[in-house]
Specification:
Elements lengths: L4 H26 L1 H57 L4 H81 L5 H14 L3 E5 L2 E2 L8 H9 L6 E2 L6 E4 L6
Parallel strand pairs: 1-4
Antiparallel strand pairs: 1-2, 3-4
The protein binds zinc ion (ZN).
Zinc ion binds next to loops.
Length: 245
């Protein structure tokens, strides 16, 4: 393939633009905020699950507390009824004895129930405090996620701007190249990442391989408008005074 050496040299401008586009694409995939958002998302889920578990435990305890209170209430009602009966003076001596005995039992039962209730309330309070702490952790994780997302958006916006500018540069450069040269460039770029590079000090600017003596002499003897490629990576080797030929 043949191409005007001046046109060949302009491939270096195109390769520079494309290298930047490749960097932008790579940066887009590897922005640290992507991992940060993932981490924050995991934390949000973990703390939310813990919060739900804590809220469930609190409402279970609420039900238990209500049951306990109802039980205490019914013991109290029974005590009150027994006392009224005792106070009425309308019961026999045996009944009075039975009632007193029952009242003692009921009092012991009430004390035990009240102790249990107190313990339930303490557990509930501890769980509620725990829930408040977990709630604060959910807020913190959500805040971190939002902050990382905002930083990501900012960086993506910058990348969008850079990409748009380089694509503009690219569109301006493309009409300078004959179709076959551009096709070769694009094909190599697609497969190897770099379509053209400067041959500098006998080294391929794309794969950095130092060319051997016979290859150098072949390139040296090739016509100026001959398009030469690196036999290692396929990149179009652009020759300038820096090439060391
Ligand atoms: Zn190479």
């Amino acid at each position: 393939m043949k191409a005007d050496p001046a046109v060949q040299r302009q491939l270096l401008d195109l390769a520079k633009v494309d290298a930047e586009l490749t960097r932008v694409a790579h940066r887009r995939r590897t922005l640290p905020e992507l991992a940060e958002i993932d981490e924050a998302e995991k934390a949000v889920r973990k703390h939310r699950d813990a919060l739900v578990a804590s809220q469930t435990a609190v409402s279970d305890l609420d039900r238990e507390v209500a049951r306990q209170e109802k039980e205490i209430e019914s013991v109290r009602a029974r005590e009150e009824r027994d006392r009224k009966l005792l106070d009425s003076g309308s019961v026999s001596a045996k009944q009075m004895n039975d009632l007193q005995h029952e009242l003692e039992t009921l009092t012991r039962r009430q004390t035990a129930l009240e102790d249990d209730l107190l313990e339930l309330m303490e557990r509930r309070e501890a769980l509620q405090l725990d829930g408040q702490r977990t709630g604060a952790e959910v807020d913190k994780a959500e805040h971190e996620r939002a902050a990382a997302k905002a930083r990501l958006d900012e960086n993506v916006k910058d990348l969008d701007t850079t990409q748009a500018r380089r694509e503009e540069d690219r569109a301006k450069l493309l009409p300078r190249f004959p179709e076959n040269l551009l096709k070769l460039y694009e094909r190599v770029r697609e497969h190897k990442g770099i379509g053209a590079a400067l041959l500098r000090a006998r080294r391929c600017g794309a794969c950095q391989l130092e060319l051997d003596r016979s290859t150098i002499s072949e390139i040296k003897s090739a016509a100026e408008d001959e398009v030469v490629s690196c036999e290692n990576c396929g990149a179009i080797l652009v020759r300038t005074v820096e090439s060391g030929l």
